[in-house]
Amino acid sequence: MRTPVIAVDGPAGSGKSSVCRGVADRLGLRYLDTGAMYRAMTWAMLDARVDVDDPEAVASAAAAVSIISGTEPLDPTIHVGATNVAGPIRGDEVTAAVSAVSAVPAVRERLVAIQRDEVAAALAAGSGIVVEGRDITTVVLPDADLKVFITADPEERARRRAAQDVDLGKDEVDVEDTQTALLERDAKDSGRAASPLAIAPDAVVIDTTTMSLDEVVGHVCALVDTLTD
After folding, report:
1. What is the pTM of this model?
2. pLDDT tens across 114-131, in order?
3. What is the C-alpha to C-alpha distance for residues 70 and 73, in angstroms, rounded to an integer?
4. I want to staple 149 with a disulfide (CB 3.0 to 4.6 A). Which of 4, 43, 203, 210 is the partner?
């Protein structure tokens, strides 16, 4: 199979972004970070001073937002209109608001349609694609060729996220505070009515707690190899 559609879900800090980019690069596939799309939508709401706790206001404003995602695994881009928001969407303000925006059904419906269009475009171009998020295996791409759920224990996830925040330029990052924030995000994502974070019955669960990035990438690539058997 030369054009596999690989759907990957998992909680924040599990390592799924690094894994998905690594798999896409190694196999010559496109890559789509749906989490960045929700963060971009959240940035757009904050930039327009929309009350993110007002679902009707968010739904109305979101209809006019143009989100453009690059699919190059080693250089993924994300724009709201002509504005490059790759940096701003990782800020604390967006992080604090993204769960509220992501829970609005109209937002999810619109972004899911865009995500499916990106998959269709990849296949039409003769390329496979790795798509990551929180509802990819269960809602966005239930017929994906391979479904993977990547996780890790909360302490390790917090350590990874804290290290990522330092790489993004934050001066001080408390791992315990990071773990608390991750668990709060887990509860919101798993408990929302619209497309909650869940493990698809036919997904392969990979616990990356004690695995290196290269080991996880290799494991997923090996799973892709079995699709041709």
Report:
1. 0.88
2. 999 999 999 999 999 999
3. 9
4. 203
Task: Please state, in angstroms and rounded to a whole number, the distance separating the CA atoms of residues 82 and 44.
Answer: 12
Q: Which two tokens stand for residue 15?
A: 């390592």
**Start-to-end C-alpha separation, the chain:** 9
SS3 152: coil
Over residues 158-167, the pLDDT tens digits come to: 888 877 766 6
Residues in CB range of 129: below 8 A, 6 or more apart: 5, 6, 24, 29, 30, 31, 32, 71, 118, 119, 122, 123
Pairing of strands 67-69, 146-151: unpaired
Distance CA 191, CA 66 (A): 28
Closest CA to 196 of 128, 108, 111: 108
Give the gyration radius of the chain's Cα atoms: 17
Q: Among residues 31, 37, 224, 30, which one has the least CA distance to residue 125?
A: 30
Write the burial class of residue 193 (CB in 10 Å: 0-12 exposed, 13-18 middle, 19+ buried).
Answer: exposed
The Cα 228–Cα 225 span in angstroms is: 6
How far apart CA 115 and CA 168 sit, in angstroms, is: 26
- Domain architecture of the chain: domains with CATH: 5-228 (3.40.50.300)
- Please name the residue ranges forming H helices in 48-153: 55-62, 92-102, 105-124
